[in-house]
Amino acid sequence: MRRVGPNSFTEIYFAGCNPSFVETTDGYVMIDSPQQPIDAVRWRERMEEKAPIRYLINTEPHGDHISGNAYFPKVTVVGQVKLQECFERYLYAFGTLEEKRERFKESDPDSVWLVGHPDYPASNPPTLTFTDDLTLNVGNHTFNIVHMPGHTAPQTSIHVPEEGIVFTGDNVFYKCRTWLQECDPWEWLAALKSIDALDVETIIPGHGDPCTKAYLKEQGQIVENWVGCIERFVDRGLTAEDVLKEPIEVTEQDPYPIGQRLFMHNERLTDMIVRNLHQRILAKKQQPGAA
Ligand SMILES: [Zn+2]
Questions:
Q1: Ligand 1 centroid distance, CA of 93 (Å)
Q2: What distance in angstroms lies between residue 13's CA and the mean position of ligand 1's atoms?
Q3: Residue 237: beta bridge partners?
Q4: Ligand 1: distance of its center to the CA of 178 in Å?
Q5: CA-CA distance, 279 to 5, in Å (whole number)?
Q6: How far is the centre of ligand 1, averaged over its atoms, from the C-alpha of 67 (Å)?
Q7: 203 Cα–ligand 1 center, Å
Q8: Cα 173 to middle of ligand 1, angstroms
Q9: Which segments of the chain does DSSP mark as H helices, in order?
Q10: How confident is the prediction for the chain on average, in pLDDT?
Q11: Burial state string for 152-191 with b = 16 or more CB within 10 A and e = fewer than 16
Q12: 151 alpha carbon to ligand 1 midpoint, in Å?
């Protein structure tokens, strides 16, 4: 747990994303939830001992940001309207509760008893939604919740001016490998510009250490490198399958190692990035009026 603003904290050492919270004069506002059930339950009990949790805001639909929501059953979850629509699909993207429980027997025995526990619902999707933006005033704090599609379609940033902070979810990966497996890269670059325009000192990324706006240029460069790399293959007329047979210098596009203890997925991620960007670049080139 690290203090990142006068009343803001983030957890960068858990398996999963960087769940965070702001302590207001009227209780807590959380940004994303701890991925592992035991971490989520421990967090909630520590917080509720001190003050109520008013809201839980999700930045994106990936499982490492939303699967802990279930362990905050009485808390109102806030999310972009598309996130509400796709919540269940993403939650079960990696299997049923039964399959999850089996996996935890190996990877996280302390969490096994909490999977499907009768005190908790199977899921806790957003019930308070917005399309473009939403402002919540809680105690003396303002939460400007803004749709910034890029890494995912419902991607959301939470700007807290009193703290000089923006929580971006995975539109920023600080010095760990960037996941572009379903992104719209052009929207992502626009989102980075929007983040850069905010008056903030600190960015809380979805993964990796807190950083400053100085890192946004590098983050944008990684997105641009990947687009350029795949675009050269598309221009040569290669299909996604052809591209995957070519040598791809991953570290020339993105110099950082994969984070989140997901080393075993490193090659699969390259495969997913190639397929996503190939399809999007090709579609863009085939649009009427495209050069
Ligand atoms: Zn993500």
A1: 13
A2: 17
A3: none
A4: 9
A5: 41
A6: 12
A7: 16
A8: 9
A9: 37-50, 63-66, 81-91, 97-107, 185-196, 216-235, 240-245, 250-253, 266-286
A10: 95
A11: bbbbbbbbbebbbbbbbbbbbbbbbbbbbbebbbebbbeb
A12: 7
Comparing CA positions, the residue from 173, 277, 157 lying closest to residue 216 is 173
Is the pLDDT confidence value at 178 over 80? Answer: yes
Confidence of residue 291 (pLDDT cuts 50, 70, 90): low
How many angstroms separate the alpha carbon of residue 11 from the centre of ligand 1? 16
Using CA atoms, how far apart are residues 40 and 47, in angstroms rounded to an integer?
11
Tens-place pLDDT, residues 44-73: 999 999 999 999 999 999 999 999 999 999
How far apart are the two ends of the chain, measured CA to CA in Å? 49
- 140 CA to middle of ligand 1, Å? 30
